[in-house]
């Protein structure tokens, strides 16, 4: 296991939802939230020894301080300097502030918010039963992953309880040490030793509590303190209802194998599952070009060299008839995965759906294995190999220069 834990490439991937026309087009039973009265509100660490001494920090001592969810979460593409955090802490009505590192990592076509935290301070921003669980935070300190229980069914775990944080063969694996509900906008946590491995921006998010003061009245003073930080200031009461605060521009800091093709992804929520990436991002990242077999397609501009190479290899293998242009369901979709507020690689223009009718989610599908081999040779992952299959789906796992 040690070699996997040391691997440098990272992108967190979860099972994509949907069994309808395109792989992001609908939801299924396993993609619905768990009963909030049960697993989502428990802290249940799996049994057994901790398994990652190389990422271990000193275990937290007895918990002290106030416990409760943050009222406001600030996210930024850059490190929020301690002086800025201090200025926010000094805003009248702000009770306390904690710094965390927050990134979106994409595994099996679902973006997940992963936070690197100091277990001793972050625990106070979770539910009381989670905060009081010494075992949960001992395991995070020991280098393991704590996952929100509502996501447990969607995480592709191996027989030893490890999750591959990426789609490449070199992707590291993290052992799941606890199932515990996290702070708003956080799906899973690791300790801060993982920041370099995940290529995270250190300290780019803040958890803020306001005590008895209405959080919404503090949005503007906090934004003034953040002047120039290009940050999103979200009210967690709205997040609880909507999944995201639709009144602010969202900032997704994507890391891992697709980070170079995505960069900083800022978008507005339009409703109905649709989003609007910033026009400057679209102009610099999305284009329409001609490729073999399919003709004109709209994707992330960095995917085209290896997409052309893969499709040309399909032609050279005499398999062009195995891809049906009339059953192509697209590449760039600026929307959430259906029934969620999670982004997929389609939102970044880094995935495409082929031969949709015969390759629905959860099936073996009809995709020709020669076509699969050609795409895998040119740096794509095929959804037909996932735990919950998506055989229509191919996504870029790494940048390949056919050159």
Structural class: alpha+beta
Percentage of residues assigned to helices: 10-25%
Number of helices: 12
Mean pLDDT: 84
- List low-confidence stretches: 1-20, 26-42
The backbone outline, from C-alpha atoms, is: globular
Structure description:
This protein is of the alpha+beta class and 403 residues long. The protein folds into two domains: 2-274, no CATH class; 280-396, Muramoyl-pentapeptide Carboxypeptidase, domain 2, CATH 3.30.1380. Helix content is 20%, strand content 24%. It has twelve helices and 18 strands. The chain has helices at 2-6, 82-89, 119-122, 128-131, 134-141, 195-198, 219-225, 236-242, 259-262, 279-285, 304-316, 369-377, and strands spanning 43-44, 72-76, 96-107, 110-117, 145-147, 162-164, 173-180, 188-191, 205-209, 231-235, 250-255, 264-271, 274-277, 286-291, 295-300, 351-353, 380-382, 393-396. The strands form three sheets. Strands 1, 2, 3, 4, 5, 6, 7, 8, 9, 10, 11, 12 and 13 form a 13-stranded mixed beta sheet that branches. Strands 16-18-17 form a three-stranded antiparallel beta sheet. It has a two-stranded antiparallel sheet with strand order 14-15. Strand 14 (286-291) and strand 15 form a beta hairpin. Helix 11 packs antiparallel against helix 12. The longest helix has 13 residues, at 304-316.
């Amino acid at each position: 296991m040690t070699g996997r834990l040391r691997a440098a490439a990272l992108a967190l991937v979860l099972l994509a939802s949907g069994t309808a026309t395109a792989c992001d087009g609908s939801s299924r039973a396993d993609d619905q939230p768990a009963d909030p009265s049960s697993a989502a509100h428990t802290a249940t660490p799996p049994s057994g020894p901790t398994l990652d001494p190389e990422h271990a920090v000193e275990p937290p001592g007895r918990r002290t301080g106030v416990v409760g969810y943050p009222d406001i979460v600030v996210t930024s593409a850059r490190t929020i300097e301690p002086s800025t955090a201090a200025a926010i802490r000094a805003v009248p009505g702000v009770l306390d502030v904690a710094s965390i590192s927050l990134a979106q990592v994409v595994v099996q076509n679902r973006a997940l918010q992963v936070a690197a935290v100091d277990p001793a301070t972050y625990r106070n921003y979770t539910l009381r039963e989670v905060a009081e669980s010494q075992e949960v935070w001992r395991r995070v300190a020991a280098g393991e992953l704590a996952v929100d229980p509502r996501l447990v069914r969607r995480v592709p775990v191996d027989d030893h309880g490890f999750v591959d944080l990426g789609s490449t063969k070199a992707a590291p694996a993290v052992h799941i040490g606890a199932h515990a509900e996290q702070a708003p906008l956080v799906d899973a946590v690791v300790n801060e030793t993982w920041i370099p491995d995940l290529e995270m921006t250190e300290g780019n998010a803040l958890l803020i509590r306001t005590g008895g003061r209405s959080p919404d009245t503090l949005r503007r003073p906090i934004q003034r303190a953040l002047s120039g930080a290009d940050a999103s200031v979200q009210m967690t009461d709205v997040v609880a209802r909507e999944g995201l605060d639709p009144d602010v521009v969202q900032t997704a800091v994507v890391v891992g194998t697709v980070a170079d093709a995505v960069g900083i992804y800022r978008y507005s929520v339009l409703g109905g599952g649709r989003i609007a990436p910033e026009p400057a991002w679209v102009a610099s990242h999305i284009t329409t070009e001609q490729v073999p077999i399919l003709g004109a397609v709209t994707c992330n501009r960095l995917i085209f060299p290896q997409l052309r190479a893969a499709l040309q290899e399909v032609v050279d293998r005499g398999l062009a008839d195995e891809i049906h242009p009339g059953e192509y369901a697209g590449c760039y979709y600026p929307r959430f995965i259906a029934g969620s507020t999670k982004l997929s690689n389609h939102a970044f223009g880094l995935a495409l759906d082929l031969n949709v009718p015969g390759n629905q989610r959860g099936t073996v599908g009809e995709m020709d294995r020669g076509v699969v081999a050609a795409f895998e040779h040119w740096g794509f992952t095929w959804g037909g190999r996932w735990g919950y299959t998506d055989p229509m789906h191919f996504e870029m796992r790494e940048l390949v220069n056919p050159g």
